[in-house]
Amino acid sequence: MRAIVVDDELPALQSMVRLLERHQVEVVAKFQNPKDVLNGLEDIEADAAFVDIEMPELNGLELAALLQSAKPRLQIVFVTAYEQYALEAFELAALDYLLKPLQTSRLDVTIKRLQMNRPVADSRTEARVALCLFHGLGILRESGETAELPWRTTKAKEVFAYLLHAGDKATSKDELIDRIWPDAEPDKAVTYLHTNVYHIRQTLKNERLPLSLEYKDGKYRLICPPGTRIDAKTWEKELKDAEEDAAEAYRLLLDVYRGDYLETEAYLWAESERERLRAIWLERAQAVAERMEQSGEYSQAISMHQRILFRFPESESSYFGLMRLFGKLGNATEVSNYYDKLVRMLDEDFGIRPNGKITSWYSAWNDSRAL
Question: Are residues 273 and 360 in the same domain?
Fold first, then answer.
C-alpha cells in the first residue's frame, strides 16, 4: 500500500511516516505545506492520504475535497488533535479519523480498513444507463422508473448537469465557475468547484453508475460508456430519423418528450438549448398534426394540437387546426369553443383579432350551418 502524509508540524509528520512504515505502508510523499500537495499531485500514485486537519491557509478538510476531486480513488484518513471535526470529516466521506497522540492499536484498525476498501471491480455496476434531461435531471432505471440522484448539494447537481449538457466537450475550470458561481470570490469559487466535483464522484460511485469525471489539462469532462442514453440527444436523433414515419414521430413528440429541457431547474445556461428543442418540437408537431388531418386520423391530430396548445398556448395555427377538425367531425360546440378561446387569448395577450384566414373560415362555417 502506498500513502502520502500531510502535516504542517514536522515532528508529527515524521512520527506518522515512521508509524506507517512499521506497518509496511510505503510513504511515497510527505508535505508540511498543504499547497505543495496540489502542485505535485499528478505525479503521485497513492492509495491513501493521511491528512492533518488544523493547518494554516488550507485546512485538511478543504485539502481532502481537492485531493479527491483530482484523485477520486484516493482514500482519506484524517489525523488531528481535535475531536470536534469528526462529523465534518465523515461527511466528506473520509475512510477514518485518527486522534493525536496516535495509538498503534488504533492505526492497525485503520490499515485494515484501507486494505479492505481498496477499489475493486464492482460486478453490480449497471452495464447501461439512461439519463434524463427532459423535464428535470434524473436517471431512468431498468424498471422504467425515473428517479433523481441523491445529490449532496444543489451545486453538485448543477455541475453534473452542465457537464452532461456539454457532452464530449471538455469544460475548463473558469467556464464552470463563471456559469455556476459567477458572483463568488475567485479563491472560494475554486474551493466550491473542487468540493462539488468530489461530491459528484462520490454520488456516481455510491449509485454504482458507470460514469466517470475526467480532469485533464485543467478541464473537466463527463465520460459516459458506450450504450449510454441521454433522452434529449436520443430524442432529437430519432425524431430526425422518423422523417417519413408520422406514427413514430407522434410517439416521440407525445410520449418521449416528457417536458422541456431541464424545465424544473433554474439554470440560465440551459435556456438557449431549451428554446432550441422547443422550436424543433413545435415545428415537427405542427407538421405531424397536419399530415394526420390530411390522412383522416382526426383523433390523433386533435391530440397533437391540444398538446401544442398546452406547451404553446399562443399557437394560433393549432386553434385553427382544432376548429377545422371538430368542424369535420360535426362538433359545432367545440368549433365555437376554440374560436372564442382564440379571440380571448389574442385580445388579452396582444390586443389583436384572429387573422383574416381564420375569421373568413369561421364565417363561412357559420354560414354553411345556417343553410
Answer: yes
Q: Are 315 and 342 in contact (CB under 8 A)?
A: no
206 and 246, same domain (yes or no): no
pTM beyond cutoff 0.85: no
Q: So what's the pLDDT on residue 302?
A: 96
Grid cell, residue 52, equals 492533518
90 and 174, same domain (yes or no): no
What is the number of domains present in the chain?
3
**Based on the domain organization, do 202 and 258 belong to the same domain?**
no
Interval 26-66: pLDDT, tens: 999 999 998 888 887 777 889 999 999 888 878 888 888 78
Question: How many CB atoms are closer than 10 A to CB 261?
Answer: 25
β-pairing, 212-216 vs 26-31, is unpaired
CA dihedral 294→297→303→308, nearest 10 degrees, is -20
Strand partners, 221: 214
Q: Which tens digit of pLDDT belongs to each residue from 115-161?
A: 877 654 444 444 468 999 999 999 986 666 778 899 989 999 999 99
Residue where a domain stops, chosen among 223, 250, 279: 223
CATH number of the domain at 297, please.
1.25.40.10
Cα separations in angstroms, 220 against 174, 187, 199: 11, 18, 14
| 231 falls within a domain | no
CB neighbour list of residue 99: distance below 8 Å, 6 or more residues apart: 80, 81, 83, 106
Domain that holds residue 206: 151-223
Residue 43 shares a structural domain with residue 105: yes
| Residues 282 and 163 placed together within one structural domain of the fold | no
Same domain, 256 and 358: yes
